[in-house]
């Protein structure tokens, strides 16, 4: 079977009941989706399948023949980060980074659905994603900033309302 | 990881029924949200897997006052019933999170075995209160029966759809819990039928969902109904809550649901 991963068609040899997570990480070498709980509870493995967020650990790859999979590498490149990637950087929304990939893809889908900067709506959209560093405030700040259409100065870290900014704000 | 020796992808309901056969040795994969972790963690090693994602069972049909939901319908799509069956839509949106709801199916939710450390089967509550009929196939052929009866013998059967009549009003109440826990601690659904009958059901119990018959009999007095509901259920301790806590919160949810039904009337 074939999968298109970040725009490139890849042939998959794993059996149809292999999880998409195992196929991405172990067969195709795409390691940004993380193997966290591997039972759908943490959100760290989330990828976009034909534009919609999906838990890679719960998805048998056999149902995806011909589908298009986007991981966080597909959102942008180091020299041309997507708005969401810029926002996560500017707002210091990644700490250990384990949840970041899943958070960003769920947020990307939320924004594509027309999501606004309403914090409760963002929380609901990211409800299935656990940040073990508990850095939710800045993650929500970042998603809200993209929803508002903010532009980002990548040389500074934005202050967060109600929080002590530990980044390099001048 | 362990691989099934045979993986079948039926492309129609008829083909799914044929490939399911008498169900012997067949593991049904609906959305995969329950089965896949079982395989990943080595608790399940299917010899034959019947994957329903292309079987066309994801139907939602409203014909007059009759609603029919295919077993493969993603839970998220039940939100579309917010006008017709408010409680069912609310219950669906209370399940897990957006990604899981898009992937999980009605049939998987109804047919799941008991959870390892938390209750499953949220949708059993509203569908029991709606007195849904379940259509399924198994070794003895096709059967349409009350959902309560189906739940008692669901192992070895393939659920095809459920059918019920739109209620005059419905209400749903659940214990709120932090987002990171995906299972419902305790939930109560109430239905008021067109002829004024009040039905109540609960999930988050030991075993599958349960009609609250004693509470229904006392429905005109919410306080008494709430107290009576405790007699209708079997409560257990699990990772989410204790039986002690559930016993004290069940009456509250019953009163809340009956109050909402009364307001709707």
What descriptive keywords fit this protein?
heterodimer; A: 170 residues; alpha+beta; B: 265 residues; five-stranded antiparallel beta sheet; 32% helix
Structure description:
The complex is a heterodimer of chains A (170) and B (265). Chain A is an alpha+beta fold. Helix content of chain A is 29%, strand content 11%. Chain A contains five helices and five strands, in the order ββαβββαααα. Chain A has helices at residues 20-27, 83-90, 100-112, 119-125, 136-148; strands at residues 2-5, 8-11, 46-49, 52-55, 68-70. In chain A, helix 2 packs across helix 5 (136-148) and helix 3 runs parallel beside helix 5. The longest helix of chain A is centred in the middle third of the chain and has 13 residues, at 100-112. Chain B is 32% helix and 23% strand. Chain B has helices spanning 13-20, 35-40, 86-93, 98-103, 106-111, 124-129, 147-152, 213-217, 222-232, 243-264; strands at 6-8, 26-29, 48-51, 60-63, 66-70, 133-138, 141-146, 158-165, 169-174, 187-192, 198-203, 210-211. The longest helix of chain B is centred in the last third of the chain and has 22 residues, at 243-264. Chain B starts with 5 loop residues before the first strand and ends with a helix. The mean pLDDT of chain B is 93. At the A-B interface, strand 4 and helix 4 of A face helix 2 and helix 4 of B.
Please trace the helix and strand order of chain A, writing H or E for each element: EEHEEEHHHH
The best one-word shape of chain B is globular
Helix content of chain A: 25-40%
Residue runs with pLDDT of under 50 for 5 or more positions of chain A: 164-170
How would a textbook summarize the main sheet of chain B?
5 strands, antiparallel
Average pLDDT score of chain A: 92
Strand content of chain B: 15-25%
The class by helix and strand makeup of chain B works out as: alpha+beta
The main pleated sheet of chain A reads as:
5 strands, mixed
Radius of gyration of chain B: 18 Å
Number of helices of chain A: 5
Q: Give the distance, in angstroms, between the N- and C-terminal Cα atoms of chain A.
A: 52 Å
* Total number of strands of chain B: 12
Radius of gyration of chain A: 16 Å
Query: In percent terms, what proportion of residues of chain A is strand?
Result: 5-15%
List low-pLDDT spans of chain B: none
Choose one word for the global shape of chain A: globular
Class inferred from helices and paired strands of chain A = alpha+beta
Number of helices of chain B: 10
C-alpha end-to-end distance of chain B = 55 Å
